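Morning F.,

Quick status update on the modeling queue. The single chain you submitted on Monday has been processed. Sequence for confirmation:
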Amino acid sequence: MAKKQTKKVEVIEEPLVEETVVMEAPQPEPIPEPEPIPEPIVVEQPRARERLRSGDEWEIKDRLYMLKGGKRPLSRMLKSAGIYYFDEEKGYERELKYCQNQKTSFVDEMQGDQRLEHIIFRSGNLFVPREQTTLQKLLSLYHPHRDTIYEEFKPAVLAASQIDILNMEVDALVAARNVDIDLAEAIMRVEIGSEVSKLSSKELRRDLLVFARNNPKLFLELADDENVMLRNFGIKAVEAGLIRLSSDQRNFLWGSTGRKIMIVPFDEHPYTALAHWFKTDEGLEIYSNIEKRLNQ
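Structure tokens below.
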């Protein structure tokens, strides 16, 4: 018998490959950064103030009140009752009264008993401490005699006023130093009259500077007055006898003939009227005539 051939089949086994599944670990949630701590804001505390009806602010502080005109009597009593204030918001007058046991000076707002108190200035002054707000408001805001019989002492306002006066004095002194001799004579003639004719130029300059320092407002007004030179011209013509003013101060006449030159308008200063008249056509001819005679 023939032998059966057996075919040997090789079986190749593939190696098992283990699949490794990589599991992602859960990511932790990001930790939020801490917010920066804000720096503390330092707010400057304002001084105690109170809103008024008018919209202004009332500052609580000590206040000093003084009688006007520098008056300093031993005592001066101010009305503390029977006075009225016109309230624009309400549209009518409201009665005022100072009562120490009340928180208001308006009678229609008072409650309970009303114990009237006196308001007395001693030696011209009245000091009211910051705690007495009711009296301060009555004096500073509502009293009808405010700024007529008395006024509140305000250093800032006083300083500003003094600065204005000092600046005016400086301006007047500078202007007085630079004016010509004719204008200086015209200005001083307004101040001292015909005596100016007896002054030397140095005396005139000195008196002009003193006048500018003592009365700067009047000096600056005279220096800017276009008629001051014409008034001085008319006065010099009268002093020289070229023209004269009638005894009733109603007419200017020629000194030599007595013929009428001009009539002074009613209720007007004669030399001011003459200065205005010199600007007219007729006045210019007379001015030229007088100027020639004065310069002879």
